[in-house]
Amino acid sequence: MSKKIAAGASKIVLDVTCGSGAFMKNKEQATKLAQMMKKIGNLAKKETICVITNMEEPLGKAVGNSLEVQEAIKALQGNLEQDVQEVVFTLGAYMLKLAGKGENIEENKQKIQKQIQEGKAFEKCKEWIKRQGGDISYLEDLNKWEKAKYIIPVTAQKIGYVTKLDAQTVGKLAMELGAGRIKKEDSIDPLVGIILEKKVGDKVEKGEILAYIHGNDEEKTKYVQESLANAYKIEEEKIEKKNVLAVI
């Protein structure tokens, strides 16, 4: 909040995550944090809205630096994962509301979708990258991106529905590959990470691919392959998930 206020924001929309992959582990803790953030906003005379979102499993399919950037590019081109769309459109809709661009949240979501479908969002992204001296050809052709040395699948050992995919475990495994730092002096490998092909609520067949591991160290890649299989919980009954839990 201090950074947003210092930067001169007049109105603020916050994404307050909760779940195993977040600082706040449940909705009750996240709600208390959101209420505190709103109080700070009110004291600073900044209109503030907090959207509480689910981080029990990773958002989207990609976990890892360049993999996540490529997923973001695809999203701007119209290929959004459903959970990403739900969260991003909700946050964006409330931003439009606070900016005085529309009171109706569902209509605001449609405005965002239209900007993406008409290619305006992607063109704005290219303009933004170009103005900073970036090479926009990497946005236009994802085949130019360098890939990790090893890309291996994780397969389901039984038929059923994914009922749990622990975000904290997935994050730690990506860190083991080099996508994050275990110690502050560690270097980050931008190419490594995990692509999740199946998530909570998805039906899987025995032998079907659950995810792909992208690694540059063969031993670490195989370790993460085995460990990620255990992060998936597959049961007979399907469960429904909700990504936007509350708006405060």
Shape assignment: globular
Overall mean pLDDT? 96
Helix content: 40-55%
CATH structural architecture of the domain at 147-235: Alpha-Beta Complex
SSE order, one letter for each helix or strand = HEHEEHHHHHEEHEEEHEE
* Tally of strands: 10
- CATH topology name of the domain at 147-235, in short, is Aldehyde Oxidoreductase, domain 3
Low-confidence stretches: none
CATH superfamily of the domain at 147-235: Pyrimidine nucleoside phosphorylase-like, C-terminal domain
- Major sheet description: 4 strands, antiparallel
How much of the residues is beta strand, in percent? Answer: 15-25%
Summary?
With 248 residues, this protein is α+β, with helices and mostly antiparallel strands. It is built from nine helices and ten strands.
Give the topology.
Elements: H1 2-6, E1 11-18, H2 27-43, E2 47-54, E3 62-63, H3 65-76, H4 82-98, H5 105-117, H6 120-131, H7 137-140, E4 150-155, E5 160-165, H8 167-177, E6 193-196, E7 203-204, E8 209-215, H9 218-231, E9 232-235, E10 244-247
Parallel strand pairs: 1-2
Antiparallel strand pairs: 2-10, 3-6, 4-8, 5-7, 5-9, 6-8
Helix pairs in contact: 4-5, 8-9
Question: What does it look like?
Answer:
- With 248 residues, the protein is of the alpha+beta class.
- The chain has a domain at 147-235: Aldehyde Oxidoreductase, domain 3, CATH 3.90.1170.
- Helices cover 42% and strands 21% of the residues.
- The protein has helices at 2-6, 27-43, 65-76, 82-98, 105-117, 120-131, 137-140, 167-177, 218-231; strands at 11-18, 47-54, 62-63, 150-155, 160-165, 193-196, 203-204, 209-215, 232-235, 244-247.
- The strands form three sheets. Strands 3-6-8-4 form a four-stranded antiparallel sheet.
- Helix 2 links the parallel strand 1 and strand 2.
- The radius of gyration is 19 Å and the shape is globular.
